[in-house]
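Lecture 7 notes. Example A: sequence first, then its structure tokens.
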Amino acid sequence: MLIGFALAYLMNKKFKGNDLWTTIIVLPMMLSPAVVGNFWKFLYRPQIGLFNNIFAFFTDKDPSSIEMLGSVDLAPWSIVIVDTWMWTPFVTLICLVRAHSAATGVGPASASAGRADSTSRNSGGTVRSVRNADIESPPTTTAPNPR
């Protein structure tokens, strides 16, 4: 949650490329879990996985000596990394929407369904109320009795 809040705080500031970074940050949440699983399974592969090669670079050990998904100690951390990567954008969006609503003055008191939905008012003649309209039911016909 802290990562999502921090990203929302940074994205709330307007800067050049803000829309691009917003898309990049939200992208993991839009992907299918099956695609995400295959992507991360590839990253965790013992021989050619990115994490193992980074680990080998910093520790001077063989990249295939560690199995992120095969180790009882590392598998839960692997899942935490994937889950964090996939669902942090959701928290970011929730915090970002709240920050935007606070900046525009739309809060819980003024965002009731009656105010947000303008169908009960005649807003420029485009939407009219049908609350008191008389609606007739279609005529019913009865089939003759075959007996």
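Example B, a different protein, same format:
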Amino acid sequence: MDGTFDAIKAALEAGDLIAALKLLNERVVQRYSAVYRVTPDRRLENIAFVDKLDMPFPEHLLAVPYGMSFCQFTFAYGEFRTSDSSTDPRLDGHPYRGLLNSYHAVPFVGDEGEATGTICHFDLDAAPLADEDFELLQLTARTLAACLPSLQVAKRPDAATER
């Protein structure tokens, strides 16, 4: 992985989640990379976000109801990969099927061994994710879980300026 994981790990250990996400995002075709954490009321709260086009953070992605998220499938399956949600039968009936077309995610686990959030790449356009980049996402999730308590997480709504 050409030293990318070492750089991601160093960024996480330094407490810079946005820098780690940028390193992940540089390698993939997906426009967005993000980290979501499950809240006590079962919503997915965004704690970090990177957009290749450096556009302002989409308000509707700040907090997503669990049942409306693709993250729910990540928790159910232990990981989730879809290069084209419009043709993925696992997403039949989901309101974002065919709208959020590319989604690749893995969970991260808290101290008690329970999945507490996800790290993902996603895009409105259909696009595959190379196996090597998915493995990098998995490695990053393991490191993220260990570093999360000390990370600088995005403060909303001004997080778009942190990129």
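Note on Example B: The beta strands are 32-38, 43-51, 63-65, 80-82, 102-109, 115-123. The first strand starts at residue 32 and ends at 38.
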